[in-house]
TrEMBL record:
Species annotation: Leptospira kanakyensis
Protein name per the record: Guanylate cyclase domain-containing protein
Superkingdom of origin organism: Bacteria
InterPro entries per UniProt: A/G_cyclase, Nucleotide_cyclase
Lineage of origin: Bacteria, Pseudomonadati, Spirochaetota, Spirochaetia, Leptospirales
An individual GO BP term: cyclic nucleotide biosynthetic process
UniProt-recorded Gene Ontology molecular function terms: adenylate cyclase activity
Domain annotation Guanylate cyclase: ranges: 49-207
Amino acid sequence: MNTKKPEKKIPKLKKISEADVIMHLQRNLTLGHFLETAIEPIISDSEVIACFSDIRGFTSYCRLQQQKNQDTKIHNFLKRFTRIYSEAFAIWYNDNSTNLFNPSMVAPTMYKNLGDGLMMVWEIPSELEIGEQSILTLEILGLIHYFQDRFYYHFRDLTPIERNAYSDDVTELEIGFGVAKGHAWKLDYGNTKDYAGSVINLASRLQDLARPSGIVAHYDMAPDIFDNDPPFAGKCRILKSVSGFQNIKAWMSDSVIISK
């Protein structure tokens, strides 16, 4: 009886040319950002204010310009639109130069472009006293109003040059914001940061309700601000059917119309 084990055949290594190596390297480099998704993040707890913004009527505006063969007007609009946030922050800083906080604390900790919208997150430093946290929340809510005002500054009462650049159709566009404050998980990937948690989902849902324009903010993020002589004109409502949430009390701009 033959008990000899069969010999394992060692596969011959295929020769790869220098051109093939270069081709594979180039292909992998194009996947660089996608390959980063495999990096395990460092996860930590954070207290944050999350805000989502979105342009109302942007899809219709794009369709209309494309029907007129005026795609360049869409590009011009987007170039101007993406600058409103940094411009608004610069104006806010100039108007609040005696502020108690370092301006970097009121600048968003993270922002992410979402097509014609934006996601912004502010981390609340844990060393702040409760009263200081309330003041910082007020400052951030004020900054969001500056974002809103800057949008209408650029896209209403157009000059002839602006009319040629964007078309009068931009005067039909509106902007909406959703804001919430609470616990989130910070996902630190080294070069980039992201946040997850129900507060992020809530801010996104509230943004969807900020129609036809205006700001919808979770009431519990700043009851003292929304109850005691609020600096912003608005109203409070109970939202009974926000996707994933029930009976959410929210403060909203007077321009927001919540259907039954």
